[in-house]
Amino acid sequence: MIDSMEEELNALWLEVETLTGTKYLKRKIPPDVSDHFSDETNQAIRNLKDLDQRINNRRDVRLLSRMQQELRDDGEMSPEMYLWWVNRY
């Protein structure tokens, strides 16, 4: 199930693609703000980056909570959680 933030993210990606005239194949990293783009395009890019960051923060909070639960229950992290922790921090 897609939540409202992911739907909004998809809509912002479509708006940025329309405004920049560029189709982004990998929608992982938003484009950078540029003097070559209009103010409207740059604002859409800023909004996209902001929403992407909020989604990443929410994901991190969930994973951090899961890691704390594992530590509390078992006294150690699963390999998956350990790799996430090492790569993130």
> Which radius of gyration do the C-alpha atoms yield?
17 Å
The number of strands is: 0
The biggest beta sheet, please? none
Query: How helical, in percent, are the residues?
Result: over 70%
- Helix-strand string: HHH
Low-confidence stretches: none
End-to-end Cα distance: 29 Å
The 3D shape can be described as elongated
Q: How many domains, in number, for the residues?
A: 1
Count of alpha/pi helices: 3
- Assembly state of the chains shown: single chain
What do the pLDDT scores average to?
Answer: 87
Strand content: under 5%
* Secondary-structure-derived class: mainly alpha
Write the layout of secondary structure elements.
Blueprint (H helix, E strand, L loop, with lengths): L3 H17 L18 H36 L4 H10 L1
Describe the overall structure.
- With 89 residues, this protein is mostly helical.
- The chain has one domain.
- The protein contains three helices and no strands.
- Helix 1 runs antiparallel to helix 2 and helix 2 packs across helix 3.
- The radius of gyration is 17 Å and the shape is elongated.
- The protein starts with a helix and ends with a helix.
Q: What key phrases describe this protein's structure?
A:
single chain, 89 residues, mainly alpha
Summary of the model, kept short:
This protein is mostly helical and 89 residues long. 71% of the residues lie in helices and 0% in strands.
